[in-house]
Amino acid sequence: MRYLLLVFLLIATQIEAQNDDQKQINEIYKTALTNGKGYAWLNYLSNQIGGRLSGSLQAQKAVDYTKKILDSMGLDRVWLQPVKVPKWVRGTPEFAYIESDPGLTNNVPICALGGSVATPLGGIKAGVVEVQGIEGLKVLGKEKIQGKIVFFNKAMDPTNINAFVSYSSSVDQRYAGAAEAVKYGAVGIIVRSLNLRLDDFPHTGAMSYGDTPVESRIPAAAISTNGAELLSATLKLNPEINFFFRQNCKILPDADSYNVIGEIKGSTYPNEILVVGGHLDSWDLGDGSHDDGAGCVQSMEVLRLLKATGYRPKRTIRVVLFMNEENGLRGGTTYAEQASKNNEKHIFALESDSGGFTPRGFSFDCNETNFEQVEGWKSLFEPYLLHLFVKGGSEADIGPLKNDNIVLAGLIPDSQRYFDHHHSANDTFAHVNKRELELGAASMASLIYLFDQYGFKE
């Protein structure tokens, strides 16, 4: 009889706890959708400050602005964490054309890849060879590539429903294409933009020369998908065409910058830290609204929503706006190094860096015990149409925190439109939906709340 009574009490306690969780999560969503602040913050970040390339004046303005907002929220502590960041500048707008016959040209939209060297002052004009990804270099060989511009034209696979899978399988040509092509004697590279639709927006992104000596480095640029289609079709008609491009980007000495951090101190376990964040830097072509202004304002909104609903955290909840995710990951690395140096105990970290679109769920990098705990929360998210709880990944900035005693997570928004905007002039505030942004912030706040309630499972 006593055993049955204990079982009954246990079940009753669990039901009561779940009811409390339902009420708190409902209050979070209601507050986000009726009194959200993130959209207004993003409006200022995007339209008054703009693109925030690491080391730029705009990046510093973003640091100042977001710290001011955090200061106004009544948090227990707000501070700046110094970070040394790379400084690459684009310079004057790039220019390119396809020359099908002497004097007969078609201009095409290009942009320099982040970290690329400039062309000579007068630009580069050379024959061009097309390859379908880095593996195509070996097929052509040095004899056909020497002295030419390599055109990497591997498109993102449209058959993957998760667009990030397609991105991952094509991004190597952007990142390492120049380092590989120069081994075959190429004088420059042009890379098809990582975009699932056909348009005239070239998409930039980080590239690396690896161990290529400075004097041997070749310029690298992205071409819009429409431009790539035209170049490919023209090459099929006449393999002897020339391609011209000019860019005057440069790498300057490292600059001083900051991670922006604010926290609410835990009432019961203040030494256990939960992090929520996004990256404050962006590329310079658009205003960085989806990548990753959205993630930053959503993360700030998480702390505001918890305070606005009257919730008092058991554990310390910290928002971190990381600097330099796009071309160096210095912010994430510095944060993890300082956390280790200070013997801080991080048990959970959540990042939003996949755009401000409708939230679909979360990805988790954790052990089976903690993933089982997460799966037990699925019913709490079902009323809000979140259904993806997948094991196997998080986001870049929180990656350096990884150890056996932390759960890392990433917000999964719908990915179908993300690469229309990613790293391009098309990443603007006009393409962010207020309600979708607010739903993402509420979803993140709800997950933070649950990890605060139930902690890390050993």
Task: Tell me about this structure.
The protein has 13 helices and 16 strands. The chain has helices at residues 2-35, 38-49, 57-72, 135-140, 142-145, 163-181, 225-237, 289-308, 330-341, 368-375, 378-381, 418-421, 434-454, and strands spanning 77-89, 95-101, 104-107, 110-112, 124-131, 149-152, 188-192, 220-223, 242-246, 250-264, 269-279, 315-322, 345-351, 359-365, 388-391, 407-413. Strand 2 and strand 3 (104-107) form a beta hairpin. With 458 residues, the chain is of the alpha/beta class. It folds into 2 domains: 25-86 and 254-454, Aminopeptidase (3-Layer(aba) Sandwich); 93-252, Glucose Oxidase, domain 1, CATH 3.50.30. The radius of gyration is 24 Å and the shape is elongated. Strands 1-10-12-11-13-16-14-15 form an 8-stranded mixed sheet, with helices on both faces. Strands 3-2-9-5-6-7-8-4 form an 8-stranded mixed sheet.
Report the oligomer: single chain
The termini sit apart by 33 Å
Helix content: 25-40%
Q: Which strand order spans the largest sheet, edge to edge or round the barrel?
A: 1-10-12-11-13-16-14-15
Q: Number of helical segments? A: 13
> Any idea how many domains?
2
Query: CATH homologous superfamily of the largest domain - what is it?
Result: Zn peptidases
Helix/strand structural class = alpha/beta
Number of strands: 16
Low-pLDDT runs of 5+ residues are: none
List the helices and strands in order.
HHHEEEEEHHEHEEHEEEHEHEEHHEEHH
Q: C-alpha Rg, in Å? A: 24 Å
The CATH class of the largest domain turns out to be: Alpha Beta
Strand residue percentage: 15-25%
